[in-house]
Amino acid sequence: MHTNTSSNQALIPQPALCNWIGQSRSGLDKLKKKDPTFPKPIKFGDSRQAAAYYVVAEVQSWLQAKIEARDAA
Question: pTM (2 decimals)?
Answer without folding.
Answer: 0.82
